[in-house]
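User: I'm curious whether this sequence folds into something compact or stays loose and floppy. Could you predict its structure so I can see for myself?
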Amino acid sequence: MTTASLFSRLAKGVSRFTGSALCFGLAVASVLSWALVGPAFHYSEKWQSVISTGTTIVTFLMVFLIQRSQNRDTEAIQIKLNELIRATHGAQNALIDVEEHEPRDLARFRGRYTELASKAKDPGDPSVSAVGVHSVELDGMPQSDRES
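Assistant: Here's the prediction. I'll summarize afterward.
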């Protein structure tokens, strides 16, 4: 098993556990336990630093696990969306892997779809049918080869 695969499995398992009710309960119990022993330590700086250091370390490590989980989920969603675009008759195949484009290209695409949404709200527009706007031009992007 590779290091990347091991990290991926570990991250997935930790993500599931930390999102569980059991983990939340353990976190609450830890904080309550810390608070209850406060009088025994006379609310000293050492007592305060225990919770501060613990939460800092956990937060630091969780950032990486959360990011890994988010990356994996985003990649899976993008693959599913690409398949839906590919399989849908009349869909703009140019939008497959659109997330790989530069931000200025994405802004241009978003602008075109905002324009489409405005047209769809205007039933008097000749490009609108009973099922919506017929097409969108994506300036320089190849059009779907399934459109007729």
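Summary: Confidence is low (pLDDT under 50) at residues 144-148. Residues 3-87 form one domain.
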